[in-house]
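Action item from last week, closing it out:
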Amino acid sequence: MSRIGKNPIPVPEKVAVTLNGLSVTVKGPKGELSRTLPEGVTITQQDNNLVIAPTSEKRKSRERHGLCRSLVANMVEGVSQGYSKKLEIIGVGSRAQVKGRNLVVSAGYSHPVEVIPPDGITFKVENNTNVTVSGPDKELVGNEAAKIRAIRPPEPYKGKGIKYEGERIIRKAGKSGKK
């Protein structure tokens, strides 16, 4: 049995959970998320905890047990506290700005690149080079941050590009002159 799946999920006071068979809806101060869990698991609410258990000892059921527990725990944390990813833009002339809800990134191309966020995702820019992607859905926040990073991934020679905050770029030596 999954060690992660065994742990109950504590539900904060400001979060409301609605269970309907295998569909879970979580409402909180940061928003509302819903998800339908796959077959092979059951979810129940006991006091202020959610408990997820496998329906049988078959391999598929045991595989999905820990996954479903993590997905529901991320939903509960997302609507109560929210998630955010920070990106840094490095390079001369590279910058970002927010226009309306959209993010406009100038990263060395002949044109600025515009990123349109899905519902629930917000962009914030500080000092023209630090971008924060935030929202209640952990998966969406990570995907949007990855899309922004993919505009100009960091290169290994001078380190220019868009990288996550705290990401370590392994640098390479350039060409060496003749001796």
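Closing note: DSSP finds three helices and 13 strands in the chain.
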